[in-house]
């Protein structure tokens, strides 16, 4: 009897692995299909745009039918890109297997106590862990820390979804605030011989920057039947419920946040021209045209923007813009006839503009009069994201019966840490 049960268990395990392998293969096939469709759409876009440009050269205007066809292909190109992004995101989401228990005893204990709290509201195990650790596992509003595995998975998923988090610097903190001293002018230095005197250097200009971690929350709901189902992985469920919500909210704040109960977005700082730039402000270059690029040689402003960054920043820089702006620059060509925007060469890679990666951030403004629709920066050095350790959950079975709400909070902050590492393109005259 025991042998039969063992074989049955092994068969179930093998079936589960086979199902998981088939699911992974299906996701990979979907990503490959979307990648192929994307390149075919771009080839059609390129041919139609070349036809439009030829018509303009011959007749000083393009055919209406050609313009409509190009617009349809442009929309299809964006749609296939979204499908590819979704396929890649699904492919990068491995399950948190409920059968996989942590090897560390403390983590296993936390995992079991957390599941008990989520399913039934029994907080005794988590409170006992809190007493053992002698630390604040709960905040004044109540709630308990999710398991380290669930927190890691949520942050990893957010990095895949949030465009700015994927390219910025991140730092984990244990307090509500992160202070950083930064040398504005840089340390004084020079060359001397072995026995030459070392003259006193001038005083450095030190900037004290402050990055408070603000509270971000989500409130997913579940039925009691879902919670009672032992097959459902609670950690997987909570990660899938909050990752997109958190990523969308913080993504908007990293771009346009005003610093009031949210991070400071890189577009919210004081702006000035490149010639008048000083520390604490972001420099911009104007296109010379209100709400658009120049009619002739429109890509020249992009070249100026690239070389507005010093070489040390430029080599790791990226363009950041939304899809509508990208649709405009996708039509630009070099004098030799090549398109300046090129699709990703491999699955998972970014499109490039003049050989620099293009990051799509839908929270960037559209091209309009005096808008700052394009940013070019070494975001690893320019923008800092601070994550306070710990994601907390408060179980609420009373406010929305018969559903159980899970008030989930995390603290995150952000802001510019190097104002010399970012340049903006202003769609204005000056």
SSE layout and pairings?
Layout: H1 2-59, H2 64-91, H3 105-120, H4 124-133, E1 144-145, H5 148-161, H6 163-167, E2 169-173, E3 177-183, E4 206-212, E5 214-218, E6 221-222, H7 224-228, H8 234-256, E7 271-273, E8 282-286, H9 300-306, H10 311-314, E9 318-321, H11 323-329, E10 341-342, E11 352-353, E12 356-360, E13 374-377, H12 379-382, E14 383-388, E15 392-396, E16 404-416, E17 422-426
Parallel strand pairs: 2-14, 7-8, 8-17, 9-12
Antiparallel strand pairs: 1-15, 3-4, 5-16, 6-16, 9-13, 10-11, 11-12, 13-17, 14-16, 15-16
Q: Which term fits the overall shape?
A: globular
Number of domains: 2
Determine the number of helices (DSSP H or I, runs of at least 4 residues). 12
Pattern of helices and strands: HHHHEHHEEEEEHHEEHHEHEEEEHEEEE
How much of the residues is beta strand, in percent?
Answer: 15-25%
Structural class, judged by helices and strands? alpha+beta
End-to-end gap = 84 Å
Our Rg estimate from Cα atoms comes to 26 Å
Residues in helices, as a percent range: 40-55%
Main-sheet strand order equals 7-8-17-13-9-12-11-10
Name the poorly predicted regions. 1-17, 96-102, 134-141
The overall pLDDT, averaged over residues, is: 83
Annotation, overall tally of beta strands:
17
Q: What about the largest sheet?
A: 8 strands, mixed
Report on this structure.
The chain contains twelve helices and 17 strands. By secondary structure, the protein is α+β, with helices and mostly antiparallel strands. It folds into two domains: 90 residues; 240 residues, no CATH class. The strands form three sheets. The chain has an eight-stranded mixed beta sheet. Strands 1, 2, 5, 6, 14, 15 and 16 form a seven-stranded mixed beta sheet that branches. The chain has a two-stranded antiparallel ribbon with strand order 3-4. Strand 11 and strand 12 form a beta hairpin. Helix 3 packs antiparallel against helix 4. The longest helix is centred in the N-terminal third of the chain and has 58 residues. It is globular and about 75 Å long. The protein starts with a helix and ends with a strand. The N terminus is likely disordered.
């Amino acid at each position: 009897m025991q042998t039969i049960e063992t074989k049955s268990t092994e068969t179930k395990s093998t079936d589960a692995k086979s199902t998981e392998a088939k699911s992974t293969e299906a996701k990979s096939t979907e990503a490959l299909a979307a990648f192929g469709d994307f390149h075919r759409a771009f080839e059609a876009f390129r041919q139609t745009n070349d036809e439009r440009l030829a018509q303009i050269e011959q007749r000083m205007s393009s055919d209406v039918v050609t313009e409509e066809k190009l617009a349809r292909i442009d929309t299809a190109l964006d749609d296939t890109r979204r499908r590819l992004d979704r396929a890649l995101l699904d492919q990068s989401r491995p399950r948190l297997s409920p059968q996989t228990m942590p090897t560390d005893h403390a983590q296993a204990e936390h995992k079991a106590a957390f599941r008990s709290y989520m399913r039934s509201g029994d907080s005794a195990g988590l409170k006992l862990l809190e007493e053992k650790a002698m630390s604040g596992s709960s905040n004044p509003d109540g709630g308990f820390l999710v398991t380290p595995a669930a927190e890691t998975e949520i942050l990893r998923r957010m990095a895949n979804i949030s465009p700015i988090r994927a390219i910025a610097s991140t730092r984990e903190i244990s307090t509500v605030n992160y202070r950083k001293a930064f040398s504005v002018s840089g340390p004084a230095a020079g060359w001397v011989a072995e026995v030459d005197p070392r003259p006193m250097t001038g005083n450095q200009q030190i900037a004290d920057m402050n990055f408070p971690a603000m509270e971000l929350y989500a409130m997913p709901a579940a039925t009691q039947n879902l919670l009672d189902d032992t097959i459902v992985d609670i950690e997987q469920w909570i990660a899938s419920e909050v990752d997109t919500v958190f990523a969308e909210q913080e993504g908007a704040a990293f771009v346009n946040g005003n610093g009031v109960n949210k991070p400071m977005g890189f577009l919210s700082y004081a702006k000035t021209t490149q010639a008048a730039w000083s520390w604490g402000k972001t420099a911009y270059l104007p296109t010379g045209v209100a709400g658009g690029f120049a009619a002739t040689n429109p890509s020249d402003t992009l070249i100026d923007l690239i070389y507005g960054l010093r070489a040390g920043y430029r080599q790791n820089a990226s363009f950041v813009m939304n899809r509508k702006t990208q649709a405009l620059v996708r039509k630009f060509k070099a004098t030799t006839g090549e398109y300046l925007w090129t699709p990703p060469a491999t699955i998972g890679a970014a499109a490039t503009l003049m050989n620099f990666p293009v990051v799509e951030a839908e929270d960037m403004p559209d091209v309009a009069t005096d808008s700052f629709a394009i940013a070019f920066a070494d975001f690893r050095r320019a923008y800092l994201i601070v994550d306070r350790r710990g994601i907390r959950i408060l179980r609420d079975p009373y406010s929305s019966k018969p559903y159980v709400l899970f008030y989930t909070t995390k603290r995150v902050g952000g802001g510019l840490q190097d104002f010399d590492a970012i340049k903006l393109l202003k769609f204005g005259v000056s």
